[in-house]
Specification:
Layout lengths: L1 H12 L1 E13 L9 E13 L5 E14 L11 E2 L13 E2 L2 E12 L4 E13 L12 E11 L3 E10 L6 E8 L2
Antiparallel strand pairs: 1-2, 2-3, 3-6, 4-5, 6-7, 7-8, 8-9, 9-10
């Protein structure tokens, strides 16, 4: 009974939200392409808002695979990791192969109405469809972000990220239209 009373307020103020998406890209001469392949992408993004609405956590997972005649598939269509959206701290599309698996945890703190900061850890790997990959084979990156909404119109962002295979961090700056 004491535990029930202790956690009851937490349940009432903690909210959960999630979104999953599956995408299939089919390329063939009948669709106007010079190449023939299928690309599957499965993504999930979950958000947990903690009590007080100052803290929230975002969890992201992405699985991507491509199939077809691998000698004819252009390299830019292969599942890739690295850059500002996956494995931050590594160069853009640092890893590419037939299958990619990516996961991320990010903890946000809302400093004020227009300012928030976060810390994150990303991990992921690309591999051949028939290769067994252990947990030790996954590169990892970590860092923090700071964003500021300016006049309700633009988001100004700064990210500092490092990866276990780099000696120095990578900085990302972004300006985007606020929604």
């Amino acid at each position: 009974r004491a535990c029930y009373n202790l956690f009851k307020p937490l349940k009432q103020t903690t909210t959960y939200d999630g979104k999953g998406e599956y995408t299939l890209k089919i390329a063939s001469p009948t669709t106007g392409s010079d190449y023939t392949f299928n690309k599957h992408e499965l993504t999930f993004k979950g958000i947990i808002n903690f009590p007080g609405r100052k803290f929230f956590k975002v969890t992201r997972f992405k699985y991507e695979t491509i199939s077809g005649n691998y000698q004819q598939i252009p390299f830019y269509e292969y599942p890739a990791l690295g850059g500002k959206s996956s494995l931050r701290g590594l160069q853009e599309d640092r890893y590419a192969d037939r299958v990619s698996l990516f996961g991320s945890q990010e903890f946000y703190y809302q400093i004020s109405k227009n300012v928030r900061a976060s810390v994150f850890v990303d991990t992921g790997q690309v591999f051949l469809a028939n290769k067994f990959v252990t947990l030790y084979d996954y590169p990892c990156s970590w860092g923090g972000t700071f964003s500021h909404k300016i006049m309700g119109m633009f988001n100004l962002g700064f990210t500092l990220a490092n990866a276990n295979e780099r000696r120095s961090p990578i900085y990302y700056f972004s300006v985007a239209k606020a929604f």
